[in-house]
Every structure is written in C-alpha cells, then in structure tokens.
Design a protein that fits this description.
The protein has 213 residues and is an alpha+beta fold. Helix content is 46%, strand content 19%. It has a single domain, classed as Roll (Nuclear Transport Factor 2, Chain: A), CATH 3.10.450.710. The protein starts with 7 loop residues before the first helix and ends with a helix. About 13% of the residues have low confidence.
Length: 213
C-alpha cells in the first residue's frame, strides 16, 4: 500500500511537491541562467510564501485559485520527469516511453493529492539558507524551516538542465522523498507488477477525487 511522507511544518510552507501540476513545457523564470542554485530555490520559496501569506488568497472560496497559483510557481522549479525516473530506478529502463509518461503523470497526481490539504495554516514559518554544494550539473541547497516550536532541516537536490536549476529530490530531516517512494514502488513491482503499481496510483487518485467532490 502506498503511503505519503508527512511533515506538517514543511507542508505549511507549501514547498513539498504536493500542490504542483506537472506541465509538459514549463516556463523559464527570467534571468534563470544567472542564478545560483540557492538563488533559484529562494526565488521559488519566496513566491510560495507570498501566496500563502496573502490575506486575499486565504479567504473562503479561494482554495482552488490559491492552489492553482502555487502549482504555477512551484511547477516551474520541480522536474517531475527526473523524479519519476529516479523513483523507479532500474525499472524505468524497462518501460516504453508511453508507460514512462503515464507513470510520471500518475506519480505527480499522487503527490498532489497526498499533500494538497496540508498547505493551509501557514503561520509565519521562515526558511534559513545554510549551505550550497555544487558538483558539475548537480547541486544541493541546505535549508532549515524555522517556527517557534520546531526547526526542520530541509535540503533541495537540483540538476542543471539547459541552464535552469530544477529540483529532483527533497530531503526532510534526513529522509529523502525519492528514496522513500523508490522503496515502496520497488516492493510493489516485485510483489505484483508495474501495472499493479499504476492501479494503486489510479486508485489513490480516485479516492482523492471522491473526497474532494
């Protein structure tokens, strides 16, 4: 059975992958080529916090509009095709392009539905930028989400594609999102099949649609 990886403090900041819609052709941010990995992450974080802290966006009846704006902002920074490939690991190479595309779309929808209800309740948590590690086309930006009651280490792993820094993994308090789902998906594929994994993802999506209707 699929399980979502939860962290309330992080989810409140809205930086997790949940509210992001995968787009086939994401827009580039202005001046992207000049940004360091930290600057790229900070630009997205600042935009997300601005939306979550906007009183107008938190009025009743504007939930869908708020979610759509979050999807647009974060969707430009996260690389869901890369994330999907890494979660399936060795199984990815055995799939046809059509299967790969279907999985990425379902995986993104699973993440979105798992965390969509947890972006509410932002109460002023701040993000501290601690360190940046750079190795070729890969980087890691280490941050910390700080609130009066808790401090949570949160690291972003990025890859440079065509001059743009894209997030492909998020590590919360030492736990990698991609590794978490890689273990789950590998177990499901080995005990059932890849089609069995797709059916579980579709089932989760259907359950979420029923709850939200």
């Amino acid at each position: 059975m699929l399980r979502a990886l939860h962290s309330k403090a992080l989810l409140r900041v809205g930086l997790f992958c949940a509210t992001i819609v995968l787009t086939s052709a994401p827009c580039s941010m202005a001046g992207e080529e000049a940004k360091t990995p930290t600057e790229a992450v900070k630009e997205t974080v600042d935009a997300v916090i601005a939306i979550l802290s906007d009183p107008e966006m938190n009025k009743p009846g504007r939930e869908q509009e708020r979610r759509q704006r979050l999807e647009e902002v974060i969707g430009r920074r996260f690389d869901y095709a890369e994330m999907g490939k890494r979660t399936l690991a060795k199984h990815w190479r055995k799939l046809t392009p059509a299967q790969q595309q279907e999985f990425v779309q379902l995986f993104q929808q699973f993440l979105t539905n798992s965390y969509a209800g947890n972006v509410d309740g932002y109460s002023g948590e701040q993000v501290q930028y601690l360190k940046e590690r750079l190795k070729g086309n890969f980087a890691e930006v280490q941050t910390k989400v700080v609130s009066p009651k808790v401090q949570i280490p949160l690291d972003y792993r990025l890859i440079n594609k065509n001059g743009e820094w894209k997030v492909y993994d998020v590590v919360i308090d030492g736990v990698s999102l991609m590794q978490n789902y890689r273990r789950q998906f590998d177990r499901i594929i080995r005990t059932s099949s890849f089609d069995g994994l797709l059916e579980q993802l579709k089932s989760k999506a259907a359950q979420s649609s029923t709850k939200s209707s």
